[in-house]
Amino acid sequence: xxxxxxxxxxxxxxxxxxxxxxxxxxxxxxxxxxxxxxxxxxxxxxxxxxxxxxxxxxxxxxxxxxxxxxxxxxxxxxxxxxxxxxxxxxxxxxxxxxxxxxxxxxxxxxxxxxxxxxxxxxxxxxxxxxxxxxxxxxxxxxxxxxxxxxxxxxxxxxxxxxxxxxxxxxxxxxxxxxxxxxxxxxxxxxxxxxxxxxxxxxxxxxxxxxxxxxxxxxxxxxxxxxxxxxxxxxxxxxxxxxxxxxxx
Length: 248
Ligand code: NI
Known about the structure:
Bound molecules: nickel (II) ion
Helix content: 25-40%
Number of strands: 8
Radius of gyration: 17 Å
Largest sheet: 8 strands, parallel
Strand content: 15-25%
Strand order of the largest sheet: 1-2-3-4-5-6-7-8
Structural class: alpha/beta
Order of helices and strands: EHEHEHEHEHEHEHEHH
C-alpha cells in the first residue's frame, strides 16, 4: 500500500472525504499527509487528525505572504507538538505570480524554518521559479524534509539530495511536456516519495478532473514502468523513505 505524502483534503474541494478515502483504499493508498497552507486550512488539518490514516503538517504557504498574521504563526507553534503533526509545511518561495513580495516571502520562509529547527520537525518545501533562493536559504538551517512537487533538473535534484532532502513526485511526471521522467530514470529511488497534491496536478489520463489520493496508483504505475520494478517494490522503497523522514 502507498501513502499520499502531500494532499489538501479540505472541505472547499471535497464534499465527501470518507468516499475519497475509500476510493483511495481500493487503489492501494491507505495513508495520507494533509498539508495546511493558511490559518483556515491549518485548523482543518487538526480536525482531520482524528481520522486514523491521516497525518498533518502545519504551515503558511508563500502565496499567503500578504494575508497571514502573527497569530497564524503562533497557532502553528502552539500545535506543533500534537502527535500526528509530522512536519512544518507547506512553506517556501513562489515567484511565479508575484516577484514583488520576494523579500517578504523569504522572511516568512525563514521564520518557519527557524521554527522547524527549534522543534526538530521536518519541512515540506514549496519552491516555484525560486530554486536558487530556496537552496541558499535552506543551507542556512539545520533542517531536513521534502521538496514537494519536484520538477527540476537532474542537477538540482542532486543538490537537494546531497542536502538530505527527499523529492516529492506527483502527476507532473505523467505530463507530456515534462522532463521529470528523464530525471527520475537516472535517480535512485531511495530519494523519492509519492504524492498527488490533490486537488491539483491531476495525472494523465485524468487531466481536467479534480485530483484525489487514489491517483497515487497512477503515478506509481508510471514510475514502475519507467524503472522496470513491481508495484510492491516501489511501495516498499517509498514507505522506507517516508519512515526515514517522518515520524509515522
Ligand atoms: Ni500543495
